[in-house]
């Protein structure tokens, strides 16, 4: 009746489940998993374990029991993965660097590393490890000739611009005849490149410095998210072909496998993914392949960002996605805090229980959920009136009062954030803008979309929002006809300044804007009607149209419940008002589908680069029993917060556990500003 291999699985020993009554409400029609989730969740964290009730007290067949057991095993093992290891690894590395010399230290770091250092080590610990003063790299540094025992430590990215700033600081000391007992310590995060040694040699100060590395390739952003926080990777690799950072990505994969075991199955798509995998294999060989086989991650997806340049430029409508667009998030911290929020530092993560519940919701649903939390606050307040003894008062202070304070502060924060978002949205013609965006994604009304973009340019609307539509128009139409793009680019330069020519050129180099010279003939250049007819007929055969059809990214009519993010049957297009299913998310979902009838190979050929599936070793016990349910998705070139929200929905619907790693997080403004520079 029962698969005894499953029964004997050793995770029984560490189970935090009481199996009694697990499937009390389970129907006997084969829908075991669907009907037992709530029952299992309700008995989490109880101590008693009763295996017999699970298997022998119910008249169920082998497949039903195995399916239910598989779900329970997943529940037990998914919580084993703790990403705090990465921050501790960085913390220990920084402490070692600080303690190499017993003396007072002055710490200088670039502004972009501020939040990373905050996540790595507490300010009090810096003091404990000898740091007396801290400075930003961009400011002039106060130097004292009498403090010769002070060690100057610089923490920075391996950027030529920052290295030259350090050189100027050191040269200034030399001109003033200031000498220190210890050489200047230059710490590169996450690694030192060849150019670093070269620049210090060229500046003639190599003898005054020691160069080292702080290996913090990945930073824990949340329970299930790691990031390199290196947004420059996108243009550096996909525009300039710079492979300098591939080694850091490969090292991060080695660290992941050192900690969580050798990953048995790899999915690769794109040239970057393939290069990273090959480099990882070389590093494994140098490490004598000492990775443990007892793994906690079953599959790894390495995927290039250029597979889907469309989604990062779609207007996000999830709560976390909107926050990223409006306030910018840096290592999970809100970077540009409006005065209305009245807090200096705001870190958003699952430690905030309200944020954990609403982060992936559509913005229209947020207020109703905040009202529920307000009701919880009122209940705690009413409970206070019922206290009749000292012991009850003590219990209230130790538990309820603490929860009340945390919930109250979080509720005020999110109400203020929502108020700022709503006020900003009302200043925009959002509904018209979103309608045009939807038409572009659906390959409809090309001429009207073009006219609307021209109107925004001539009104000198926000350039980021204009370029968002231009990029979407280009990506969905396999390029913008040359005559149309010449008109748009001239209008942009006249209205926003001729310095924007560099930005437009870089957008073309990266492939975000493509110019199509094939669709139009010179003699038709003044015949708008004929141009439009040619374009309309051509759109039906574009690669985007094929991808849209194969991956079903443009939904038809949906039931209202399918657009509610809290619904179990939610359609992933909810994040874009039911108008669009992100290409990358749909592609990953197809990638994990083992259906032999799937046309996945045909779909994979529609994207740049090649797809490859590699099994590193066979006959894994966990691989067999859990059916590869824990998947790490590594985005090479960045991802959006909305994509993560959607992938979490897919994971819940398909009973997967998704973990995420990325080179950085993206939004329209950030990508355009990086490319501009």
From TrEMBL:
One Pfam family recorded for the sequence: Sec1
Classification via InterPro entries: Sec-1-like_dom1, Sec1-like, Sec1-like_dom2, Sec1-like_sf, VPS33_dom3b
Superkingdom classification of source: Eukaryota
UniProt-listed GO biological process terms: vesicle-mediated transport
Family: Belongs to the STXBP/unc-18/SEC1 family.
Name listed for the protein in its UniProt record: Vacuolar sorting-associated 33B
Organism this protein belongs to: Brachionus plicatilis
């Amino acid at each position: 009746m029962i698969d005894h291999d499953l029964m004997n699985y050793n995770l029984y020993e560490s189970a935090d489940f009481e199996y009694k009554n697990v499937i009390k409400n389970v129907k006997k029609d084969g829908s075991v998993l669907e009907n037992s989730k709530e029952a299992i969740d309700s008995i989490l964290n109880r101590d008693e374990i009763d295996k017999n009730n699970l298997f022998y007290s119910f008249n169920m067949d082998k497949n039903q029991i195995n399916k239910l057991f598989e779900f329970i095993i997943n529940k037990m093992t998914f919580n084993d993965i703790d990403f705090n290891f990465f921050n501790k690894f960085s913390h220990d590395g920084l402490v070692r660097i600080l303690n190499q010399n017993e003396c007072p230290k002055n710490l200088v770091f670039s502004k972009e590393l501020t939040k990373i250092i905050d996540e790595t080590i507490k300010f009090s610990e810096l003091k404990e490890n000898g740091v007396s003063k801290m400075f930003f790299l961009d400011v002039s540094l106060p130097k004292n000739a009498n403090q010769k025992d002070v060690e100057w430590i610089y923490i920075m990215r391996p950027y030529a611009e920052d290295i030259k700033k350090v050189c100027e600081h050191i040269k200034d000391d030399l001109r003033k005849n200031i000498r220190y007992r210890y050489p200047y310590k230059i710490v590169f995060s996450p690694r030192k490149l060849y150019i670093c040694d070269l620049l210090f040699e060229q500046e003639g100060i190599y003898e005054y410095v020691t160069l080292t590395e702080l290996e913090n390739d990945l930073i824990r952003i949340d329970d299930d998210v790691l990031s390199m926080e290196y947004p420059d990777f996108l243009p550096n690799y996909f525009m300039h072909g710079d492979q300098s950072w591939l080694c850091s990505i490969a090292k991060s994969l080695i660290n992941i496998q050192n900690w969580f075991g050798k990953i048995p199955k790899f999915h690769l798509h794109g040239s970057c993914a393939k290069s990273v995998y090959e480099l990882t294999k070389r590093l494994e060989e140098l490490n004598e392949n000492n990775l443990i086989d007892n793994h906690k991650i079953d599959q790894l997806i390495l995927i290039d960002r250029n597979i889907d340049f469309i989604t990062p430029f779609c207007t996000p409508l999830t709560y976390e996605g909107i926050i990223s667009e409006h306030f910018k998030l840096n290592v999970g911290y809100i970077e540009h805090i409006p005065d209305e929020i009245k807090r200096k530092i705001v870190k958003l993560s699952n430690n905030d229980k309200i944020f954990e519940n609403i982060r992936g919701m559509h913005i229209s649903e947020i207020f109703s959920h905040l009202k529920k939390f307000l009701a919880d606050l009122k209940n705690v307040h009413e409970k206070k009136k019922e206290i009749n003894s000292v012991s009850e008062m003590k219990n209230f202070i130790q538990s309820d009062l603490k929860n009340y304070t945390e919930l109250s502060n979080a509720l005020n924060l999110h109400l203020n954030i929502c108020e700022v978002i709503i006020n900003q949205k009302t200043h925009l013609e959002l509904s018209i803008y979103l309608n045009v965006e939807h038409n572009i994604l659906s390959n409809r009304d090309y001429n009207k979309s073009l006219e609307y973009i021209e109107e925004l340019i001539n009104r000198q609307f926000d350039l980021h929002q204009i370029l968002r539509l231009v990029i979407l128009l280009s990506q969905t139409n396999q390029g913008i006809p040359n005559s149309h793009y010449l008109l748009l680019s001239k209008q942009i330069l006249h209205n926003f300044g001729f310095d924007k020519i560099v930005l437009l050129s870089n957008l073309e180099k990266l492939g975000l804007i493509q110019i199509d010279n094939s669709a139009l003939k010179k003699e038709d250049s003044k015949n708008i009607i004929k141009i439009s007819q040619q374009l309309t007929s051509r759109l039906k055969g574009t690669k985007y149209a094929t991808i849209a059809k194969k991956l079903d990214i443009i939904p038809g009519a949906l039931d209202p419940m399918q657009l509610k993010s809290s619904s179990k049957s939610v359609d992933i297009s909810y994040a874009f008002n039911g108008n669009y299913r992100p290409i990358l998310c749909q592609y990953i979902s197809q990638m994990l589908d083992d259906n032999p009838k799937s046309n996945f190979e045909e779909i994979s050929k529609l994207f740049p680069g090649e797809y490859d599936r590699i099994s590193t070793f066979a006959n894994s016990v966990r691989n067999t029993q859990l059916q590869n349910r824990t998947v790490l998705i590594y985005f090479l070139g960045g991802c959006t917060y909305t994509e993560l929200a959607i992938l979490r929905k897919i994971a819940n619907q398909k009973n997967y556990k998704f973990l995420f790693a990325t080179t950085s997080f993206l939004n329209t403004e950030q990508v355009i500003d990086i490319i501009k520079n």
